[in-house]
Structures are given as structure tokens and as C-alpha cells.
């Protein structure tokens, strides 16, 4: 009997997980293009909504927190401080939420053809990133007007903060995206979590208010939360260079807990891949 070389064959429906995303780059680009083109299809304002929504958030929070509660008097350039946190939380909320719905939203593709299913949550986060960029451009422009100058530390802080949010959005988006196929309660749970996202990080308030009421170990835990760490990194990158001799400085504990934040973000990717691989074999049947 002639031996058949099976080395080039793969078990159907099983790939290399996140590593396959690099091999299927063309399909990833198609999914991202589809997501960006259909987001505002039929809308009169179209991509202008990417500016209108965060602007409305900013105005509302600035009036309530900056004017009514007088936080603006305590934090110099409170507008930059506030907006640098809002744009980052918006990126997390949109990326995490879209990634959670990504498998169910692409039901037709999942049921008909095989492709690495990790493409869907990753494409969802990339689409969210494209809507994050216009907000980032506005933040940068406002910071420059108020005296912002680039520095290696500031740029590194901005890049690291963006990485933390992107990694956590993909990791937890994969976990809850997989769970959402079998249990649609997962989507509702994520929406509940996102309700608290703005308040779970020093966006509308300063970190020292938290440090005053929490014990040291609990404050370290709060600061190690990747969302809190990323917001403080954005404050370092955008807000801090616009202030001179501000009494409010980034928490010294940030540099102690930052390695834990990075480790948590990377761990979320690993855990997300494991959970996703466990559930993906039944995606077609469950959908």
C-alpha cells in the first residue's frame, strides 16, 4: 500500500488561534473594512458621530464635574485631564462591547465557512481603534494649544496605555464573545460592566480622592486595574505636560503596580485564547 504524505493537511476547524490572524491578514482587512463602512451606513452625519458622541460626553461631564462640583478648580487644565480619560474609556467600552457581540453578529459566516474565529473579536477591536483615532487627534490638538510638548516618557506612556486597553479589550472580548454564543446573558453582563467603566478609573475625579479613603493594599489593587493604569498613563502623556507646578502629580505607586497591569493584560490574552478555543468547536451548532 502506498504511503500518503499527510504533513500538509490540517484537522478541519482547528488552527493556531491568535497566530492565524497574521496568516489571514487579507480577511482581517476585509472584516475591518466591512465594520467601518457599515457602522454609519444610512446615517446623514456618518463619521461625524465619531466626534459628536465623545464631545457630548465631555460637555456633560465637564459641566457636572468641573463646574457644579468644582473639580476644575482643583485640577489645572481639567478639560484635558477629563478628555484624556474619556477617549480611553470610550475605546475600551466600544472595543470590549463589540468584541463580545462579534461572533453572534457574524453568525452567517461562522455557520457557512471555516476561518479563524479569533478574527471577529480582533477585527471588532481594530474598528473601535479607528474610531478612537479621531478623538485622539482632538485631544492632541487641544493639548498642543495648552502648551503640550512631546517627550519620550510621554509618548511611551501613551503607547503603553493604548496597548493595555487594546489587549484587555481583545482578551476579555474573546472570553465573553465565546460565552455569548451559548449564554446570551454574557452580553447583558458586559453592558452592566461597561456602565461602571467610567467610574472605575480616575477619569471624572483624581486618584488622590481614592487614596484618601482606601487602605493601601486596596488602593494598589485599584491602581493595578489596567483601565486605571492606562488612564493615568494618558494623563502623564497628555495632561501633565500642559501643567506647570501642579499640586496633583501621578501617583508614585503607579510605577510599582504597572508591571502587574501589563502582566494582567497579557494574561487576559492567554486566558481569552484558552476559553475561546474551548467553546469555538460548538459555535456553529449553538448559533
From TrEMBL:
Domain spans labelled ABC transmembrane type-2 = 45-279
Q: Report the transmembrane regions from the record.
A: 44-69, 75-93, 119-146, 152-177, 189-207, 257-276
Q: Which PROSITE patterns match?
A: ABC_TM2
Entries under InterPro entries matching the protein: ABC2_TM, ABC2_TM_bact-type
Tell me how this protein sits in the membrane.
Answer: Multi-pass membrane protein
User: Single GO cellular component annotation?
Assistant: plasma membrane
Which GO terms of the molecular function aspect are on file? Answer: ABC-type transporter activity
Query: What GO biological process term is on the record, naming one?
Result: lipopolysaccharide transport
Q: Please tell me whether the keyword Nucleotidyltransferase is annotated for this protein.
A: no
Subcellular compartments: Cell inner membrane; Cell membrane
Q: Which UniProt keywords apply?
A: Cell inner membrane, Cell membrane, Membrane, Transmembrane, Transmembrane helix, Transport
Top-level lineage group: Bacteria
Q: Which family does it belong to?
A: Belongs to the ABC-2 integral membrane protein family.
Name of the featured protein: Transport permease protein
Q: Which organism is it from?
A: Arenivirga flava
Amino acid at each position: 500500500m502506498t504511503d500518503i504524505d499527510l504533513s500538509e493537511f490540517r484537522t478541519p476547524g482547528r488552527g493556531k488561534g491568535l497566530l492565524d490572524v497574521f496568516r489571514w491578514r487579507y480577511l482581517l482587512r476585509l472584516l475591518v473594512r466591512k465594520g467601518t463602512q457599515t457602522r454609519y451606513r444610512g446615517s446623514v452625519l456618518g463619521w461625524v458621530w465619531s466626534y459628536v458622541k465623545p464631545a457630548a460626553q465631555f460637555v456633560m461631564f465637564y459641566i457636572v464635574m468641573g463646574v457644579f462640583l468644582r473639580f476644575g478648580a482643583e485640577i489645572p487644565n481639567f478639560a484635558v485631564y477629563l478628555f484624556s480619560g474619556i477617549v480611553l474609556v470610550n475605546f475600551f467600552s466600544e472595543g470590549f462591547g463589540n468584541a463580545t457581540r462579534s461572533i453572534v453578529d457574524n453568525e452567517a459566516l461562522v455557520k457557512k465557512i471555516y476561518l479563524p474565529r479569533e478574527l471577529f473579536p480582533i477585527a471588532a477591536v481594530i474598528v473601535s481603534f479607528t474610531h478612537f483615532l479621531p478623538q485622539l487627534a482632538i485631544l492632541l490638538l487641544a493639548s498642543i494649544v495648552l502648551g503640550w510638548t512631546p517627550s519620550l516618557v510621554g509618548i511611551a506612556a501613551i503607547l503603553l496605555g493604548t496597548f493595555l486597553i487594546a489587549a484587555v479589550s481583545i482578551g476579555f472580548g474573546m472570553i465573553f464573545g465565546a460565552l455569548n454564543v451559548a449564554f446570551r446573558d454574557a452580553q447583558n453582563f458586559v453592558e452592566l460592566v461597561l456602565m461602571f467603566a467610567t467610574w472605575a478609573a480616575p477619569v471624572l475625579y483624581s486618584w488622590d480622592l481614592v487614596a484618601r479613603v482606601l487602605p493601601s493594599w486596596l488602593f494598589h489593587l485599584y491602581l493595578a486595574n489596567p483601565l486605571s493604569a492606562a488612564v493615568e498613563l494618558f494623563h502623564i502623556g497628555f495632561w501633565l505636560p500642559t501643567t506647570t507646578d501642579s499640586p496633583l502629580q501621578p501617583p508614585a505607586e503607579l510605577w510599582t503596580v504597572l508591571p502587574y497591569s501589563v502582566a494582567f493584560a497579557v494574561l487576559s490574552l492567554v486566558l481569552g485564547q484558552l476559553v475561546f478555543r474551548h467553546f469555538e468547536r460548538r459555535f456553529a451548532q449553538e448559533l
